[in-house]
Backbone:
């Protein structure tokens, strides 16, 4: 545990604190000033009592009063700059962590997002990043201001009476072992809390997104109960964290009381016996009392540190994710010659022992349209996902214009492919921005031309703010057909030589499907197109149709040839058109 903690602390300092060393040093100087002025106030108690109250020195009265005001100004100013600087560093640490997390996730494989719920990832960005900010700020301030203050006050105590200083501090080492134990417990509780928060965020996201279905099936009470159980678990963990965090207080209060009692007994006896002056004694006890609060804060540092390290561990788990799908050192850019796609004995499995594709070989000739049909779960979408390298094959090869996709740069490969799927991904932004997602930097004329080609311009102009209308989360302010036509406009704007259509019209009504099909025909013209479809009526004009079942190509041919063969395709066709 100790070595792991040390490694985490070093990595945090190296990756997120090192860039801010300048500000941290200035803040440290301010902390030293705060510590020095605090110690000076304690030291001033000696002349106040001995020279002013006992010896009645009027000249010193004004000097000490001025000194107190001066110390207050210095301390207040130093406290302000230290607080501002540490807050800025803390916020910058959060921003740097969030930027690093987002950049890493943008490089992560599709499989990573499928394996990690959205709520868990969101929790890393918000809760864990803020815990790290709080921990870094608290620990740095504690190690700076509190430790320096204690050192300065102890120096005053030693100067006044080193024996009394030694006697008063002998009880505090007793707190070390319990404080370390509380820190380890806090780390476990914090890790469990963050995991539960991730689940809770996922639940909220799923429930709010599916609110229509929750109401349609009358599941409000069930979802409320499910959320309630998670909320109770979070409450229990928060209570445990509060109890653990607070256990250091009674320990430090007790030890502090013992230390003060020893000082009063020993020091008071010496004053009574005339061995020292009242000013020396009160200066000592003032320093001890002023040191009490920073000592308590230092005792709580380990708890705060462990809470932050639990968050750091979770953050680094994401930052350490290396994508398996990435450019090889010798990868070269794709130079499209037409967009021919070729599968050669391709094998692939999402999980070991359960092949999704088992020796698939097929060709999509350049500029032609090839359709994939067959039962659900047969492997059609897997074939499509292997072309842009959302996954890599386990065996065989996928080639584009004769080049193995694994030997091409991802940017050039995916730049040559446009994807239109059943699940349209629209962002809560303007219509213009969603179409422009197809090609960054496209001008207004190109965007409008793409929308017209996708039969989308007319309905866009009928929207309240035209191309500046925000489409809502996932495009919920638009109909299914409108969303699909925006997706097609996006693909039009990209103008890629290869087009992948994944059930692009399966969820549409007849009129919307007619409009989208017309737009798709325009989009497909002159492009190498691979179509996945359940509605066989949408692929009857394809140049070639492959029937995919259980990870294999079981039939191939044109629509007429496959009907004449009276095989799987003919059976599927008969079932769909039986009415």
Residues:
């Amino acid at each position: 545990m100790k070595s792991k903690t040390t490694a985490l602390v070093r990595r945090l300092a190296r990756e997120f604190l090192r860039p801010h060393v300048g500000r941290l040093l200035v803040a440290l100087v301010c902390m030293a000033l705060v510590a020095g002025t605090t110690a000076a106030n304690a030291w001033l108690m000696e002349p106040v009592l001995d020279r002013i109250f006992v010896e009645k020195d009027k000249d010193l009265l004004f000097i000490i009063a001025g000194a107190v005001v001066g110390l207050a100004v210095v301390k207040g100013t130093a406290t302000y700059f230290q607080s501002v600087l540490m807050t800025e560093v803390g916020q910058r640490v959060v921003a740097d962590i969030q930027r690093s997390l987002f950049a890493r996730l943008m490089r992560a494989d599709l499989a990573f997002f499928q394996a990690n719920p959205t709520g868990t990832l969101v929790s890393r960005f918000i809760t864990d990043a803020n815990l790290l900010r709080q921990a870094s700020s608290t620990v740095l301030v504690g190690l700076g201001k509190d430790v320096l203050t204690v050192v300065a006050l102890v120096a005053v105590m030693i100067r006044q009476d080193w024996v009394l200083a030694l006697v008063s501090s002998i009880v505090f080492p007793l707190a070390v072992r319990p404080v370390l134990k509380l820190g380890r417990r806090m780390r476990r509780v914090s890790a469990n809390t963050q995991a539960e928060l991730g689940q809770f965020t996922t639940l909220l996201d799923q429930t709010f997104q599916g609110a229509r279905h929750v109401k349609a099936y009358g599941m409000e009470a069930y979802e409320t109960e499910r959320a309630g159980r998670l909320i109770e678990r979070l409450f229990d963990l928060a209570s445990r964290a509060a109890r653990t965090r607070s256990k250091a207080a009674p320990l430090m209060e007790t030890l502090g009381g013992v230390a003060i009692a020893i000082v009063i007994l020993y020091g008071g006896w010496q004053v009574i016996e005339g061995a020292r002056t009242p000013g020396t004694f009160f200066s000592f006890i003032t320093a001890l009392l002023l040191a009490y609060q920073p000592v308590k804060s230092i005792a709580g540092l380990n708890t705060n540190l462990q809470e932050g390290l639990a968050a750091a561990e979770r953050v680094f788990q994401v930052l350490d994710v290396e994508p398996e799908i990435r450019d090889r050192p010798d990868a070269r850019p794709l130079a499209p010659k037409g967009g021919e796609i070729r599968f050669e004995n391709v094998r692939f499995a999402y999980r070991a022992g359960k092949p999704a594709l088992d020796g698939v070989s097929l060709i999509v000739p350049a500029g032609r349209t090839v359709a994939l049909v067959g039962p659900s779960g047969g492997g059609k979408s897997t074939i499509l996902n292997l072309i842009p390298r959302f996954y890599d094959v386990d065996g065989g090869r996928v080639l584009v214009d004769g080049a193995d996709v694994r030997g091409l740069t991802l940017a050039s490969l995916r730049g040559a492919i446009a994807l239109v799927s059943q699940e349209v991904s629209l962002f809560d932004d303007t219509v213009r921005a969603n179409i422009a997602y197809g090609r960054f930097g496209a001008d207004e004329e190109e965007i409008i031309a793409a929308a017209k080609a996708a039969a989308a311009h007319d309905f866009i102009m009928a929207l309240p703010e035209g191309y500046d209308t925000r489409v809502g989360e996932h495009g919920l302010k638009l109909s299914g057909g409108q969303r699909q036509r925006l997706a097609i406009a996006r693909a039009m704007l990209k103008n890629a030589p290869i087009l992948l259509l994944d059930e692009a019209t399966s969820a549409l009504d007849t009129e919307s499907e007619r409009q989208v099909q017309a737009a798709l025909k325009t989009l497909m013209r002159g492009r190498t197109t691979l179509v996945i479809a359940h509605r066989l009526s949408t692929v009857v004009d394809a140049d070639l149709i492959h029937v995919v079942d259980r990870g294999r190509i079981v039939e191939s041919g044109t629509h007429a040839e496959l009907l004449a063969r009276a095989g799987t395709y003919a059976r599927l066709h008969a079932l769909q058109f039986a009415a």
